[in-house]
Structure formats: structure tokens, C-alpha cells
Design a protein that fits this description.
The protein is mainly β and 134 residues long. Helix content is 10%, strand content 40%. It has one domain. The chain contains 1 helix and 7 strands. The mean pLDDT is 92.
Amino acid sequence: MISDSITAAFRKGVLEHILNSRPKIALYTKAASLDAGTERYTPENEVIGDGYQSGGLELGKGVILSTPEGDYALVFHSPVWSSATVKARGALIYTADDQGRAIRVIDFGKEVVSTNGPFTVKLAGADEGGILAI
């Protein structure tokens, strides 16, 4: 039997490529225009504040997990700016080593404020499809 499908090896390889390109997460103000059409990281309307550097944080070591649906999910620990004074409406996950290609836009649903304290972006876990599931 032959079935028309994208192979598991290819899907897993795409996620491995993303892992190897050192993904980062940057925070943005409510003035930012980020959506599914966003192609690359941009400093335009990125937050500015103590404890936050332009370009954001590297997400660190991620893992690729199988989902119950037979997909693969890319999962990272939630990033934390330990002592930040910022106001952000959303975030952009992008590849640091691959021309800043946008991976995922996150809308917080409201402005989130941190005053000289930790600012955490809760990323989706494996049961929620991670930051990307294919």
C-alpha cells in the first residue's frame, strides 16, 4: 500500500534544523505588527527596558517529542528575563542562525508589565503542540 503523505523523517528533520539554528525569542510592544505573514526578526517596535537586550533571549536546549497524533512537537523551557522592566504585548520566536526567519508569533492577549522583576513567556508544552508541531 502507498499513501500520499509527508514523511516522518522529513518532519523531524525540519524541527532538527530549527533546533540547530539557535532559536531566540524577542518581546514586542502593542505597536508591533506581527502575524502569520511575518518573515523575519525585526527590531521595529521591540520592547526597550532595563534587563532586556535587543534581539531577546536564546531559547536554549529544546527537544523534539512525538505527539499522540503522530506529529512531532518542538518544545522549549519557558524563557525568563530575571530582572526586567518592560511592557510587552507579544513575542516572536525566530532563528538566530538562519537569517532571522520567523518561526512563531505569540500574542499575550494583553500588555504584560514587569517592573524590576522576572518576565516569563509561558511556551506551549508537548501536550499543546509545543512552539511548532508538524
